[in-house]
TrEMBL record:
Belongs to the NAD(P)-dependent epimerase/dehydratase family. Dihydroflavonol-4-reductase subfamily. GO terms for molecular function: oxidoreductase activity, acting on the CH-OH group of donors, NAD or NADP as acceptor. It comes from the Eukaryota. Keywords: Oxidoreductase. Gene3D superfamilies: NAD(P)-binding Rossmann-like Domain. This is NAD(P)-binding protein. InterPro entries: Epimerase_deHydtase, NAD(P)-bd_dom_sf, NAD(P)_dehydrat-like. The keyword Oxidoreductase applies. Residues 10-257 form the NAD-dependent epimerase/dehydratase domain.
Length: 337
């Protein structure tokens, strides 16, 4: 498809989320008009103020919020997508409401079909690194955008039906749901030849400043260390690659533009990290709470992360990545440290 024109209208679903809030801001700064979906309007004005503080034009002509409280409702998506040129779909279903895997698949296929019906030009879907590789594994081959997380999928498929929602970990269900949803999206595009190009962004661990509100899951891994709590780190299984949330947002927006990223699976991962690297950064930059910061973790084949990921397309598109230290430090400072 052709690149979106300046001032094109773009929908960002779930815009009050951590990555989504930055994506909305990046879209505004790129010159798009933004329609953000929210489950309720309670956080919308708080986010508008945060955008204004970041220097974005938040006038009614540039930014609007609409309620979308049902990710399985085709009619609601068609209404939200009316008059829109591009969609960035980040919203996820409630993990406590029914079959998470099947709901995740539906929450992707329903908006894809709605986007095709109204004639969207470009559709960007947020995937996950978990759809490609399993945390805690150490593959020696180069990880590319052609790979899939077979380990988690096999765990899910081999589990007894009654255990699929109960005993399997949230991470397995998340990985499988996102993987199967993404595969369903590619199958839909291949078979139906819709009006739009589909791009899937594959983020790994997101750090970087919060625009407003409380810490999301991955930023809390940083801030909890400064509070003296290392219990939530799941070491060493979650030693992965990182990406600053601002770079992640830019990749979503760049994928709308009809360039080299459009129509691809795009690794959103800046580089590997180890927890001892993170701990050293925190001790250096926050000496006032250094005595609270946990000690180094034990040596491990996974410390730092040994993965080799082909992130060359994203590196070229961005022209470089925000570094680990900047990302970690600005995560903490954004919540008052």
């Amino acid at each position: 498809m052709a690149p979106l024109a300046p001032n094109a209208l773009v929908v960002v679903t779930g815009i009050t989320g951590y990555i989504a809030s930055h994506t909305g801001l990046a879209a505004l700064k790129a010159g798009y008009r933004v329609r953000g979906t929210v489950r309720s309007l309670s956080k919308a004005e708080e986010l508008r103020k945060a955008y204004e503080k970041e220097g974005a034009d938040v006038s009614a002509e540039k930014l609007e919020f609409v309620v979308l409280d049902d990710l399985m409702n085709a009619d609601k998506f068609e209404t939200v997508f009316a008059g829109v040129d591009g969609v960035i779909h980040l919203a996820l279903p409630d993990p406590t409401d029914g079959d998470y895997v099947q709901n995740t698949i539906a929450s992707v296929l329903v908006p894809l079909k709605a986007a095709n019906k109204v004639g969207i030009k470009n559709f960007v879907l947020t995937g996950t690194s978990f759809a490609v590789v399993t945390p805690g594994n150490a593959p020696t081959a180069l990880i590319t955008n052609k790979d899939w997380n077979e380990t988690s999928r096999q765990q899910y498929e081999s589990a007894k039906e009654e255990n699929k929602q109960g005993m399997l970990s949230h991470f397995v269900l998340y990985a499988v749901g996102k993987q199967l949803a993404e595969k369903a999206a590619w199958t839909y595009v291949e078979q139906e030849k819709p009006s739009f190009d589909l791009t899937v962004i594959l983020p790994d661990v997101n750090w970087g400043p919060l625009l407003y509100g409380k810490e999301a899951l991955t930023p809390s891994w940083i801030t909890n260390l400064l509070r003296g709590d290392g219990s939530g780190l799941f070491l060493p299984a979650l030693t992965e690659w990182y990406i600053d949330v601002r770079d992640c947002a830019k990749l979503h927006v760049l994928s709308l533009a009809g360039g080299a990223l459009t129509g691809q699976r795009v690794w959103a991962a800046a580089g590997p990290f180890g927890w001892n690297q993170v701990l050293a950064i925190l001790r250096k930059n926050f000496p006032a709470v250094a005595d609270k910061i946990p000690g180094d973790v034990a040596a491990s084949p996974l410390e730092p992360c040994p993965w080799k990921i082909d992130n060359a397309p994203a590196t070229k598109a961005l022209g470089g990545w925000i570094g680990l230290e900047k990302s970690v430090v600005e995560t903490a400072r954004s919540v008052g440290f």
